[in-house]
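pasting for the record
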Amino acid sequence: MKLVGLVSTCSNLRGLILYTQ
């Protein structure tokens, strides 16, 4: 489902931002 992919992408982006900060 697209919703699941969207949530996964958001989660990955948030993790990446937290990792870089």
